[in-house]
Specification:
The structure is a single chain. The protein is of the alpha/beta class. It has a domain of 121 residues: HAD superfamily/HAD-like (Rossmann fold, 3-Layer(aba) Sandwich), CATH 3.40.50. The protein is built from nine helices and seven strands; from the N terminus they run E-H-H-H-H-E-H-E-E-H-E-H-E-H-E-H. The protein has a seven-stranded mixed β-sheet with strand order 4-3-2-1-5-6-7, with helices on both faces. Helix 5 links the parallel strand 2 and strand 3.
């Protein structure tokens, strides 16, 4: 039995933090795991920036409410789910993801959560577990599943390496150069083909 594990942002939906950066004009929030591989360093930087600019969770959720899945992503996901079990493995947060999951017809999502203070500010973040994407893949493999995975950023690489088949979707040139072992696709039909091809 095959399970397909997908990253969320950059594969199915736009990058949430980039959208927040564009809505607020705060350039520092444009940085993602494509730019800073160390997730904790990136998140601590984001939290400090939010505090400095007096941005509450409600403002971020307001921006997320305007986002739509990437063109073709919903159709791709529907087609993939008709053939395989699909799990979204993401470093986003449940407090961010709900409006996007609704638009994608509620696929299974493993991600993280936020700590919100009484004033509505993000006080901290909590990982489901460290290196959660790879550990999810390893856990599924231990249950007898074969894993095919797709992602676009540095934080997806351990997932792709652990999977029986890993695919990069519209990755930055630096990742393509550093990890030539992974096939690269640029659109959802190509991703469907790469994930569903027989061995």
């Amino acid at each position: 039995m095959v399970i397909c594990c997908l990253d969320l942002e950059g594969v199915l939906v736009p990058e949430i933090w980039i959208a927040v950066a564009e809505a607020t004009g705060i350039e520092d929030l444009r940085l993602t795991t494509r730019d800073i591989p160390d997730y904790d360093v990136l998140m601590q930087r984001r939290l400090a920036t939010l505090k400095r600019h007096d941005i509450k969770l409600s403002k971020i959720q307001e921006v997320i409410g305007t986002l739509r899945p990437l063109p073709g992503a919903k159709e791709f996901l529907d087609e993939l789910r008709a053939q395989y079990q699909v799990i979204i493995l993401s470093d986003t947060y449940y407090e961010f993801a709900e409006p996007l999951m609704r638009q994608l017809d509620w696929p299974t999502l493993f991600c993280n959560w936020l700590e919100i203070d009484e004033a509505g500010y993000i006080a901290d973040y909590k990982l489901r577990q460290s290196n959660g994407k790879e550990k999810a893949v390893r856990g599924l493999q231990a249950l007898g599943f074969k894993i095919r995975a797709a992602g676009d950023s540095y934080n997806d690489l351990t997932m792709l390496k652990a999977a029986e088949r890993g695919v990069l979707f519209r990755p930055p040139a630096s990742i393509v150069e550093e990890y030539p072992q992974f096939p690269v696709v640029e659109d959802h039909p190509g991703l469907m083909q790469a994930l569903s091809a027989e061995e």
